[in-house]
Amino acid sequence: MFGNLSDRLVETFKNLRSKGKLSPADIDATLREIRRALLEADVALEVVKNFTTDVRERALGDEVSKALNPAQQVVQIVNEELVKILGGEQRKLAFAKTAPTVIMLAGLQGSGKTTLAGKLAKWLKDQGQTPILVAADLQRPNAVNQLQVVGERIDVPVFAPEPGNGVGNPVSVAKDAIKHAKQKMFSVVIVDTAGRLGIDEELMTQAKDIRKAIDPDEVLFVIDSMIGQDAVNVAKAFDDGVGITGVVLTKLDGDARGGAALSVASVTGKPILFASNGEAMEAFEPFYPDRMASRILDMGDVLTLIEQTQKNFDETEARAMAEKMAKDAFTLEDFLDQMQQLKKMGSLKSMLAMMPGAGQMRQQLENFDEKEIDRTEAIIRSMTPAERQQPKILNGSRRSRIARGSGMTVTDVNSLVNRFEQAAKMMKTVAKGGVPQMPGMPGMPGIGGGFGGGRPSKSGKAKDKKGSKSGNPAKRAAEEAARALGQKPGDGSSGPGSAFGLGG
Question: Does one domain contain both 485 and 385?
């Protein structure tokens, strides 16, 4: 998501930070790069012009010239203007004063309306609502059946009195659905409507008729983020013809340019309410303009990361686990529980991508194999309860049996056990308030060591085996001592009892 755009902007700001006091020429050069990056990202020309004009006006004013760090101030201005074109403040879903709340979904064929209807229903269900899905797309082949399958997956009822495939009146279905929802006390009605390959009179007429019949509280236009400016033009045409109250972006995980997301709010004047960034039903979240701007500028999205963690981690369990770590009682059984907690949070790759500076390690993230967690689970589940509690009893024959049972190799089992022991030591140190030694920042236990899930390179091993090359005996001895402590020779790390890097 926004990969190319983020890279271009980060590189531009890196060049800017290398300067001290900024001249008008420096600001103009920076804005040219930003303008080029936005246009290449398929952002609407009108939006780009307004954006660069506003940034230039602020950057040439006292706001930057009087700042202690002019370059950082320019970055801050760009961030604020990005938030503005993304919609400013987040707008929440509008609920009716008297249930049910009616939400109508509209969009072109292939934009992902039906799947998104399920994601929205699941999200509302998690919020304590009682949603019902309505199959009002009676034209696309198997559209009704698809919605029923989606409803079964998330355990949400589907109102589908007509078989579809060209049979039935969508307006009547939508009206009957509202009556049914009132009788059965559903709090939210989500109406999935038909789409077309493009805007035409038939599409507009049907959408207008459905809207008039059910008087929805929200009309959400579903946009495929991957089609760029066409999505914005369609949204504008639909807003002019039918009227929409908000926008939902789908397939953001595949949008390498980001033009639609950056343009739609400004061009249509309608807020982006939600974003879908994956195929899983959980890959759905409210749209926060400030957080999205931070992601684009590679500043991360720590708030969303914290919210996801809080939602999926039990505080009592976490406290009990911390006590186990402090007492050196952390076992492979506990580690398996931690793996389960991680899986509940969704894609680990997408979580790591929310960290500040994640754009600079995009290649490692792309190479990261999420199935490594499943392989780790398979190894641990192939162990007996006693082996999970006491990994020290794992001799050669036991490890061979575990490897066969999990479909892995003995080397994989050995690697997991070694990484677990290292992690347990590190966790114990942290739990007691110490700072663990992390030479080379090894990967999470069970995730193959580093983002790529691979093994250490041969060159790395060879390098570790080499001793000091210094010809000075005293210096050579000091370097060997530093290496034994897990530090890089000459990195200025302090020895025991030294807080200032003086080496004791």
Answer: no
- Domain membership of residue 457 (yes or no) is no
Number of H helices, E strands in the chain: 23, 8
Distances 442 to 164, 331, 421, 456 between C-alpha atoms, Å: 55, 20, 13, 9
Name the region of 449 (left: φ>0; alpha: ψ -120 to 50; beta: rest).
left
Smallest CA-to-CA distance from 76 within 53, 57, 88, 59 is with 59
Q: Is 189 exposed, middle or buried (0-12, 13-18, 19+ CB in 10 A)?
A: buried
> For residues 139 and 470, what is the distance between their CA atoms, to the nearest angstrom?
78
131 and 251 part of one domain: yes
Same structural domain, 127 and 156: yes
Q: What digits encode the pLDDT tens for the residues 399-454?
A: 999 999 999 999 999 988 888 888 777 766 665 665 555 444 444 444 444 333 44
Residue 51: its H or E element: helix 45-59
Burial class (CB in 10 A: 0-12, 13-18, 19+), 359: buried
Q: What is the dihedral of CA 342, 348, 352, 354, to 10 degrees?
A: -90
DSSP structure class, residue 227 = G
**Three-state DSSP class for 465?**
helix
What CATH number is attached to the domain comprising 26? 1.20.120.140
- Number of structural domains in the chain: 4
Q: Which domain holds residue 75?
A: 3-85
Instruction: For Cα atoms 413, 415, 421, give the angle at the middle one, nearest 5 degrees.
Output: 105
- Per-residue pLDDT of 238-268, as tens digits, reads 888 888 899 998 887 765 566 777 788 888 8
Q: How far apart, in Å, are the Cα atoms of 434 and each of 214, 437, 482?
A: 62, 10, 19
Would you say residue 210 lies in a domain?
yes
Question: Residue type for 73, please?
Answer: Q
CB 333 within 8 A of CB 388: yes
Say if residue 424 is in the same domain as residue 493: no
User: What are 346-357's pLDDT values in tens digits?
Assistant: 666 666 666 665
